[in-house]
Design goal:
Distance between the termini: 6 Å
Number of helices: 11
Strand order of the largest sheet: 5-2-1-6-7-12-11-8-9-10
Number of strands: 12
Shape: globular
Amino acid sequence: MTMPPKKIIVALDDSEAAVTAWKAAAGLARRAGAVIEGLYVKQWAYAVSGYGSTPEAGARLLDEAGMARLRRRLPRARIRVSRGMAAAEIAALAHRRGAHLLVMGTHGREGLERAVMGSVAEAVISASRTPVLVVRRALSKSGGVLAPVIDAPYSRAGLTIAARWAAWLHLRLSVLHVAEQPILGRAMTPAQARAIAAGAVAGLPAALRQACRPVIATGAGDPAREIVARAGGGDLIVLSAHVKGFLQDRVLGSTAQRVLRHTQAAVLAVPADHRRWAS
């Protein structure tokens, strides 16, 4: 992953969540000397008659009035307007525009609204070839970076990215391995869990270890619950995935979804091609 990022794209609508995402991205852009650009997608809705720009099905359409409201709230923002299915269009345009980082807010939908509409953030992460930073508030200078790891090469590549973010932002880095309780057989001991986290840390370049001074943490039980419990609202959680795709990953997929839905921390989701983003 290009560090610090030099081109940042922010997915926007006229919501408070999007304005928060823009402000967080602008802070990162100032720190990195990066170009920042907004992306506003007028999304198609599911209508009785099929796809189209219609208010049917209760979908909130991003119309010209919404765009006008957004421009009033972010008068200095450079915003590109597109049309299509929101998640696919956001992911595709971020890639085509050569973004090093895609930033977006989340509306935190729950219950039936999530079941019907799903989470745009989750869908973007699943489709994106660009690292996606999902924020609910500005990153805190007093926060830290939490990097959950498992004993797998792609997880160690994700830790490298987490360490680079921690070093860049001058934040503490916590490396967490959660030992899941097996249905059959013996549970992993705390010493074994610590050895996995320590092994991942040992694989970091020496200069990077020195820069971020990682702290090892272990837990037991449900990984998503442990990650959410350990991350404060001002923290950054860095999640990585297997080459099958982020939310399709058999090990981390459901964990990532649950973390995204329940944490108040920012989440950086790194796509499958770690050789590109960790280089």
